[in-house]
Amino acid sequence: MAAAERTAPQLIAQHRPTLDQALEAIRTRAYWSPHPEHPxxxxxxxxLGMAEGKAAFDALxxxxxxxxxxxxxxxxxxxVSPYGIELGVTYPHADIDVLLPAMRAGGRAWRDAGPxxxxxxxxxxxxxxxxxxxEFAHAVMHTSGQAFMMAFQAGGPHAQDRALExxxxxxxxxxxxxxxxxxxxxxxxxxxxxxxKRFTPxxxxxxLLIGCNTFPTWNGYPGLxxxxxxxxxxxxxPHPRAVLPLALTVQAARExxxxxxxxxxxxxxxxxxxxxxxxxxxxxxxxxxIIDYTGSTAFGDWLETNARQAQVYTEKAGVNSVIVESTxxxxxxxxxxxxxxxxxxxxxxxxxxxxxxxxxxxxxxDGPKSYDEVVADLAKxxxxxxxxxxxxxxxLGAIVNPDVKARLEAxxxxxxxxxxxxxxxxxxxxxxxxxxxxxxxxxxARKYWEGADSEAAYTSECFGPVSFAVAVDSAADAVDLLRRxxxxxGAMTVGAYTTSQEVEQAVQEACLEECAQLSLNLTGGVxxxxxxxxxxxxxxxxxxAANSALCDGAFVANRFRVVEVRREA
Amino acid sequence: MAAAERTAPQLIAQHRPTLDQALEAIRTRAYWSPHPEHPxxxxxxxxLGMAEGKAAFDALxxxxxxxxxxxxxxxxxxxVSPYGIELGVTYPHADIDVLLPAMRAGGRAWRDAGPxxxxxxxxxxxxxxxxxxxEFAHAVMHTSGQAFMMAFQAGGPHAQDRALExxxxxxxxxxxxxxxxxxxxxxxxxxxxxxxKRFTPxxxxxxLLIGCNTFPTWNGYPGLxxxxxxxxxxxxxPHPRAVLPLALTVQAARExxxxxxxxxxxxxxxxxxxxxxxxxxxxxxxxxxIIDYTGSTAFGDWLETNARQAQVYTEKAGVNSVIVESTxxxxxxxxxxxxxxxxxxxxxxxxxxxxxxxxxxxxxxDGPKSYDEVVADLAKxxxxxxxxxxxxxxxLGAIVNPDVKARLEAxxxxxxxxxxxxxxxxxxxxxxxxxxxxxxxxxxARKYWEGADSEAAYTSECFGPVSFAVAVDSAADAVDLLRRxxxxxGAMTVGAYTTSQEVEQAVQEACLEECAQLSLNLTGGVxxxxxxxxxxxxxxxxxxAANSALCDGAFVANRFRVVEVRREA
Lengths: 569, 569
Fold this sequence. Notes:
Two copies of one chain form a homodimer.
Chain A: H1 8-28, H2 50-60, E1 72-76, E2 91-94, H3 96-105, H4 107-131, H5 133-144, H6 148-155, H7 157-174, E3 180-187, E4 190-203, E5 206-210, H8 221-229, E6 233-237, H9 244-259, E7 267-269, H10 278-283, E8 288-294, H11 297-306, E9 311-315, E10 321-324, H12 330-342, E11 354-358, H13 371-385, H14 389-396, H15 402-411, E12 416-419, E13 423-424, E14 434-435, E15 438-443, H16 446-449, E16 466-472, H17 475-489, E17 494-497, H18 501-514, E18 518-520, H19 553-557, E19 560-568
Parallel strand pairs in A: 5-6, 5-8, 6-7, 8-9, 10-11, 10-17, 11-16, 15-16, 17-18
Antiparallel strand pairs in A: 1-2, 3-4, 4-19, 12-15, 13-14
Helix pairs in contact in A: 1-4, 1-7, 2-5, 4-7, 4-9, 5-6, 6-7, 7-8, 12-13, 17-18
């Protein structure tokens, strides 16, 4: 489509209704999404269907993805899919002393375009990405190791939802202050004082997105789109194992920006050579004024400490707990938990790790169950869910990297194994590393976790398909351990199963005071590790697992500032 | 008034209309204020009149201000008015290991009260403060050195406006997310997924307000009320020379909180012994999760670097410039500038310091004026404005502390003195140090300020009644120097006088890019150093002078977090 066909008024006419719906959704937080979840919903009106998406992905393999970026001094790549295939895609490697200045060149026009035009340009970028959802699904699958269906949904529509949500928040925040105001102050019998004021949202500078391995689009889009929609240029530094999904995103953004008459260099990719570690270099460049990061606590803390010239938004590690105290739907609880532990081999920042279970057992609608029974029944539920290899593979995906595999293998040495991890073969991808989760029994007596220097295994994150069935002395102790875990290590999610008003109140109060998101008594088709854009907050920004939440006013409000020019009327 | 008479519904009925007007004002940014500026507007409906306010202040002198705080282990004080009188008021000195825990005790009830009740309780506190405006005026005057009328207006209604503005932003931010939501996601032919969600704004913890000497209420209230309205307890650490205005504020807050059924310890005072420096101790306490600070760049930077457990909002030093390039109202310009330089002896963070004037002179409606003529005419305008000692005193107030006096005295050695500072006697307060501003001519040739290690006097803040008439080579150079000054040192305000569209555009673009608030061609009764709540932003939060602006969404959005509890419907 030619540039002339993508004027701002056309984009506004096309996308404003969607923006308005998104603005309404974040206000009501009812269910809403403009991005279909079903693979068969694609293939018409310009979007790639299943076969076309696969073909588009296959055509990328072994290719050079030339984004037309200035300062490209080399071509780099080397992604190997967790499913075993080498992607062979190469990407531009940038001389950042050339690229960063080039990214600023188009900044004034982007700033002057204003919040509405920026929002609809972002929505057009999302439209292009949505049209390529099938292609992105393969790219996400073969970088994150997610199973196809999850890569399709979480990497496609759900990620696009989170992006749109960020655009909506960014737009709303910028238009809270009017463009113009007339200010007239009465002066008794004298003439009033009268001023004309103009307010302009201005960007902070260049934003840096540091992507992660497991959810390159879902975790990357909110920061990328929030920064772009608030007028900043965005430099995308993907995880070296998950470049392709974000490179395709940059490609789509650059296309749309150019077609709409803006400088494509407002969005650029920073791919790196193996071991180059350019995130550390980029993060402290004076041009970088915003950083979004998902990854390890160590590097997140490093960024917060060292990138002082930037606003730093981090999602780091946490330790997620589920308190299992009582239930009136024992089977539903077990099924729900089994799914939560299995989905994407527990490689979600939201997957429960610690199951806090009173050692005297729990109450259920079928009478009391001992701690051992609960753990055994949960192991059985996981085993049943994953009993069929094909179904198991579609749920588990592949182990994303050797570190996770090593951690899984070490976990069985931590205590009594209630459910051993099982190796599963994937007929389509024989080199994929597919493993079922391990459940390890641990003693949660207070003496093991009280005290600042606790070395109890369940007080640290063990990222991957590893869960601990922690025998605690009482429900009250479970709540205390929950509080301590959130306070010390953070948590992206908390779950609880209880039929007791008293315990429910205690868990709620713990979550309110320690600032963690709580799912209560989930026994159906919603899982503690899933959040929906426009309705659920992902993280709270108030405990050590993350300093921001997806998405709220705080996530966008400091990505721009408002400059006022006033003069006498 | 008894506690029972201050229920939440009654406070809502009383104050909700004011809150709604404030919410509308921050949206339109038209003129609005519920707090009368004229001293004669007080004295009825429960507010103290002029004589009563003075009597109330006099009664405070030499007294012990017992706030009924827990952990009080001593009584401290020692304020000496810049007008020469010893206040002799003593304040509770706290054992912080007792006080901080006590401040948390009432936190849950305050959180559970919700945004609206918190807002109207804050408005009731402001009502009590407003009723005592005459008393506060004397307290501000005799700590800051402001002249009475300024202390009355800036320390009274204008500060109360800024507080109300912060409450309005805080309320709006918290109610962006609904209390409850029903979420129903269609599942094709299967039953929909349905969740009930509850969203609760939760505070970060205890907020610390570190007050300043010159504007204890105006600069202190936004942070104090933003934190309190978002559910946090607030510990007020005043500047040792300006304790009384904030101590009276704490007193009013504690009274209202108790009457409304909340724990008065949600707001407490931390007065200190001479040289104790408790701000540094308090700032890194783990209980302190928010810090608001106005003061030196050195300590602001220290807070940002060291108080990593807290959200830190700082207003630091800056170098404010006015470009004088051309005007069609030469007299109006001179009068406006003369007032700006004189008001409160230039002891405002918004007072212009550098007057950037082309060395070849400027164009006016009366023809060209040389650089020397402009500077001489400005000196004459200041001299005329301050020619009458009584009028001068009412405008200048007193020099706030010996540091400012020393800086003023040193300034005349920096270059050719265009206007010498003059000593003025105050018949009512013979010990007051009252001085007119000095204007010093300096050479602004590019070679003197280009380069990172410039030692040109005008590249640093010289806080007090000191202005530099900087001869620049051209208007373009003036804009370049402006950019560099903002970028290196920050600026709370920028002014410009120009009739040239081109120069106006260049100055505007510099302010948009460097993120500074611009006043253009002010020749009447509005001055570059004054901002009005609900309409003007104070600072931008985007240059080194301050990391936040008064007031916007970013100022409030991260003082609380939202915790979601979801369960199956």
